[in-house]
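Two proteins, back to back. First:
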Amino acid sequence: MEGPVRLGAVLVAYNSADHIDNCIASCLQFRNEFEAGIVVIDNASTDGTVAKSRAHDGVLTVQNPTNRGFAGAVNQGCELLSTAEAVLILNPDAILLNPPSILATELNDETVAAAGGLLLDASGQAQAGFQVRRFPTASTLVFENLGINRIWPGNPINRQYRYLDLDTGKSADVEQPAGACLLLRRAAWKAVRGMDERFFPVWFEDVDLLKRLADAGWKARYVAAFSARHEGGHSVRAVEWSNRQLYWCGSLLRYAGIHCSTFGLWAVAFSVLLGWIPRAVTGMFLQRSFRHLTEYMNLIRLVGAYLSVGRSEARLPWNAL
């Protein structure tokens, strides 16, 4: 792919009325670069997101009657942008600070499937540990579940996982640029059959996609000259806490089932259960409620159901189920 890359953009929205205007405006300032179009895929928002999105000229807004999840919406948008050579996947709480063509130049290397850049929080600080990560291993996920990475953030496993050794002032080949603002070669997306929609509604779908791309021989790039402002987590905060935790654990277990060994999967599953015990006990004492115990029982059922099908089911292509 030489010369200018034909770009499109997919914004996945869910109850994003507080953010969608700024996100769209940041894309429209570079509208001449998005020759293939800008598409907002709305996952059944109820807060006026669709009306705000449709008020912008030059943007196609698709309102799904039900929540298809992040992966389903990305696939839907990439299908719609059939003339795009590359698609910028963007969370609605992200604002472009530089032209997307800066990322697109990386795709002149035919081995590069994805590119991302520097993500800044509201105060202008780099979102270190989030903007670029390495692929999680079973050890990584165990440390996350047990809270070790929060208690001891400088441990070797966490430093490796969160790329804390990365010089953000220099571009480099990396494993996992954040899906919050990710340029994806459409041919590569198509070659690995898109995002796995079983990661529902969110979490680990972008990690899984990039891991499958890497396994197929593609590369990903961190581009120091590109940046975006990113708040983070606005949609998932609208989900009730217990459901949010179950969704996260379910996606985590699916990822482990696909990309870890059988032993690794069981270690991750055990760490999920062990890590929730202090939360459940603390919640019962502080709130004087058995709600947290009920949530823990739901988690046990989730882990049991997943382990009963195990890695064989997890490795099936999502669109073969």
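And the second protein:
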Amino acid sequence: MTTLQPETVPTDRLALLPLAVEHAQEMAGVLGDPSLYGFIGGTPPTPPALRARYERLVAGSPETGVSWCNWVVRLGDEGPLVGTVQATVDGGEAAEIAWIVGTPWQGRGIAVEAVRGLVGWLTARGVRSFVAHIHPDHAASAAVASAAGLAPTGEWHDGEIRWRLQAPSGPPSLS
């Protein structure tokens, strides 16, 4: 059972960069708007708290066969960090995914592009099942999930709707 290590994932307008502890300072600003936590709970992290969290994430999952794949989302090659995407991959074929984009960059299709990049990268590495949990009132996240190919299942988990994408089996298409 192979664990995955995040690599840089380029998209048309973005670069998904493997999470590094050094991203904490800039990301604390990106994640600093309290309105980001209306549906997911919590409060904006302080730079030291985010640094400690990133240290744990970069260290990787303590569970055998589970990969923690985390990226920061950079606008362009040299632009600011604008959000994160993440996947917990269990057994190499199933991933639970999540995303967040800072308030100033929302409404520009950045989350959709980042999630599509994430799903494409994981699919190319054999992941076939994707799940996201979305609050039933969070229309923006539902729109991102739908645009990335996920569909609501009608199943609930901790007050959120489970969304799923089942990729075709076999090698990924190169077309």
